[in-house]
Amino acid sequence: MKKALAAREINAFKNEAIWKLITDSRVEEAGVRKEVEERASSVIRELSTEVEGLTDRLKRYKLICFYCGLRMNPDTVNLECELNKVKNVTPERRF
After folding, report:
1. Residues 20-37: pLDDT tens digits?
2. How far apart are CA 56 and CA 52, in angstroms?
3. Separation of alpha carbons 41 and 52, rounded Å
């Protein structure tokens, strides 16, 4: 009888310990998950800000003709602008 009572107490203690470990691990997992999500969101915001900055910098480097304001491409970048050939034409700074 004493052995059965001791076995029940041990079994109850074991079940309580397992329940506590499971509960604690879920709480810890939720905390870790929240921390990872917050850090990921922070990194994404930082990268987004960096991309926006780089986009703005790239916009400044687009080649635009000083005289007519048209965008240049690899085929036209070394050609002379028609407005540049005409004398007494002032540049139209369109950018």
Report:
1. 888 888 888 888 889 999
2. 6
3. 16
